[in-house]
Structures are given as structure tokens and as C-alpha cells.
């Protein structure tokens, strides 16, 4: 008996839209991470950048959980997102004159990934699928 392969993405009516949106978010995080400091808005209070890092990576990981169908892919993408966050911190130090690598930012990224990936154990993992089904 052959077993059918499970789909990579959940059963969306518009898979290209959701995959494209998620990839655009990844690109936005990469771009924002490498922009010169002068082109970024001023922080309203100390430590807000750690919150921004946490939220950005939580959204990316939650998006992966909602978009991709299999748990193994979720963890592979979680590891990739952690690596992206760490890599971008090194890139800030090596490739920009006005930004510096910050281990606390990498930690905030990692904690955000863990928070977002944890949606995989909740009914929230199906929110995007339900939204897709409701759209005309």
C-alpha cells in the first residue's frame, strides 16, 4: 500500500497569496534589520527594540505554523528563523556602519520564534486557514 504524501501547505484556496505574504514578511524583517540606523524611527523608550525583535519573529514563526501543514516543517522553519535572526545580527555588525550585533536581540528573536511556534499546539494554528475559507 502506498501512502499519499501530505501537502506542504495547509488546504488554502489561495496558497500563493498566503505564501507570498509570509515571504514578504520575511523579506521585510531582513530589510529592516540591515537598514542604516538613521533610516529607522527613533525608539520611544529604552528596550523597545527587543520587543520589536520578539514580535517580528513571533509573527514569522506563527505564520509558518499557520501556513505549513506538517509539524516537522514547523520545527525546520523555526530553526531556520532562529538562524536567520542570529545571522542578521552578525550581518549588522559586519555589513553596516551604523548598526551593531547584539546578543540580546538574537535572544529576543529566538524567544519570539519559540512563542510563535508554540501556536502549533493550539487551535490558533488554523486561524489563517479559516480566514482564507471566509474570504470571497
From TrEMBL:
TM ranges: 53-69, 76-95, 107-128
Tagged with keyword Membrane: yes
Assigned keywords, A-Z: Membrane, Transmembrane, Transmembrane helix
PANTHER family in the cross-refs: DOMAIN PROTEIN, PUTATIVE (AFU_ORTHOLOGUE AFUA_3G10980)-RELATED
Protein name (database record): Membrane protein
Annotated source species: Marilutibacter maris
Taxonomic lineage of the native organism: Bacteria, Pseudomonadati, Pseudomonadota, Gammaproteobacteria, Lysobacterales
Amino acid at each position: 500500500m502506498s501512502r499519499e504524501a501530505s501537502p506542504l501547505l495547509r488546504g488554502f484556496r489561495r496558497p500563493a497569496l498566503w505564501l507570498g505574504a509570509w515571504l514578504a514578511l520575511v523579506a521585510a524583517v531582513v530589510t529592516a534589520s540591515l537598514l542604516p540606523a538613521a533610516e529607522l524611527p527613533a525608539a520611544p523608550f529604552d528596550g523597545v527594540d527587543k520587543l520589536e525583535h520578539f514580535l517580528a519573529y513571533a509573527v514569522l514563526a506563527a505564520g509558518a505554523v499557520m501556513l505549513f501543514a506538517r509539524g516537522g516543517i514547523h520545527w525546520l522553519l523555526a530553526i531556520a528563523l532562529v538562524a536567520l535572526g542570529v545571522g542578521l545580527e552578525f550581518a549588522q555588525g559586519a555589513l553596516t556602519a551604523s548598526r551593531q550585533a547584539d546578543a540580546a536581540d538574537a535572544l529576543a528573536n529566538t524567544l519570539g520564534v519559540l512563542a510563535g511556534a508554540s501556536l502549533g499546539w493550539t487551535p490558533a494554528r488554523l486561524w489563517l486557514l479559516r480566514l482564507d475559507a471566509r474570504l470571497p
